[in-house]
Amino acid sequence: MTTNTLKSLSAFGATLSPTGHSQFSNEALSKELPDNIISPIPYYGILLTQGPDSRQFLQGQTTCDFDAVTDNQARLGAFCNPKGRMISSFLTARRDDQNYLLRMRRDIIDTTKAAFGKYIVFSKAEQVDISDQVIVLGLHGDKAKAALIDTFENAPDEKNQLCQQDDQLILQLDEKGLTFECWLTVEKAEKYWAQLSQSLKPVGSNQWQRLTIQRGIGELNPATIDQFIPQLLNFTLIGAVNFDKGCYTGQEVVARMHYKGKPKRGLYRIQLRGKNVKEGQELFSDGEQAIGTLINIATVPSDNQSTHVEALAVLAHSETEKNLSRENQDDMIKLLNLPYAITTESK
């Protein structure tokens, strides 16, 4: 974690937990996700691609259509290896036509940069990790948009729309206008935090992780790199893959599954009890064969004063109606709803 990020958290009145989440001393986890919240998200970093060939380079390497990434439009996307397996997942926006920002898990930036680096040497573009210059805030609730307008005199109106104010980026993540991200320069983050947090409740980033899980947005981490094609993380269902944009690294495999295949697994939202649950951990049925993998996790209190985990997991479709358990545990997995329908592909 960079010094600038830790300074920003301190200025917000937050600290960094051992698991890499922001946390507030007076915060108590609740069974229900609180409304009208603002959260600093230290586990996110920003990889900048800059130069005259930036758009062309990213268009030829990623699953999303960078022609649709404009001064007021953001996109979810992924970068795959030649076998179609995801190396990185991201949300991208641009400052201008030569500066594209890819917001992703901070702990996969180095591997993403190294993988991109094999191809970017042939372009008039370069990559810079600017995670020490930018802090990401998450905002959610029916007061979030009003807080943004009061602070920036502007706010997005549609899903994937963004607006820029004095080098700060504000992005709307949902269709209802309840969920937003702000990508703030560290120099001005304290000022904007003070204004935004007047009407929104500060919470730690475990809560934001929970919200992301509830939205069904899977995010790669070091334990899940190079394992899944985009369909297995439902990326075709959340608009992170464009099948009309042309070729990109891994495109042949991804397109073949879309048009001719039928994936046997997909991303599900689940709840399970127990401690020491980790991203990348395999899930097992009654037998010894793994039937899935945990992708993202968030801790949630239970009624009996204990805690359970809410998670996104890649599971075999055939196993989702059965009783599932973790390896060497009797803790049963409960399937939870996603905001979109899980479908299998075949054209």
What would your notes on this structure say?
With 347 residues, the chain is α+β, with helices and mostly antiparallel strands. It has helices at residues 3-12, 54-59, 109-120, 144-152, 186-196, 205-214, 251-260, and strands at residues 15-16, 22-23, 37-40, 44-50, 75-80, 86-96, 99-105, 126-129, 134-140, 162-165, 168-172, 179-185, 201-202, 265-273, 282-284, 290-301, 307-316, 325-326, 333-336. The protein has two domains: 3-214, 2-Layer Sandwich (Gyrase A, domain 2), CATH 3.30.1360.120; 264-338, Elongation Factor Tu (Ef-tu), domain 3 (Beta Barrel), CATH 2.40.30. The mean pLDDT is 90. Strand 15 (282-284) and strand 16 (290-301) form a beta hairpin. The protein has seven helices and 19 strands. The chain has a six-stranded mixed beta sheet with strand order 10-11-12-9-3-13, with helices on both faces. A six-stranded antiparallel beta sheet has the order 18-15-16-17-14-19. A five-stranded antiparallel beta sheet has the order 5-6-7-4-8.
Number of strands: 19
Structural class: alpha+beta
CATH architecture of the largest domain: 2-Layer Sandwich
Instruction: Work out the radius of gyration.
Output: 20 Å
- Spatial sequence of strands, sheet with the most strands: 10-11-12-9-3-13
Strand content: 25-35%
Instruction: State the name of the first-level CATH class of the largest domain.
Output: Alpha Beta
Number of domains: 2
- The geometry reads as globular
Helical content band: 10-25%
Which sequence of SSEs, written as H and E, runs from N to C? HEEEEHEEEHEEHEEEHEHHEEEEEE
Low-confidence spans: none
Per the CATH scheme, the topology name of the largest domain is Gyrase A, domain 2
Biggest sheet features:
6 strands, mixed
Number of H/I helices: 7
Distance between the termini: 45 Å
Q: What's the pLDDT, averaged over the residues?
A: 90
CATH superfamily of the largest domain: Probable tRNA modification gtpase trme, domain 1
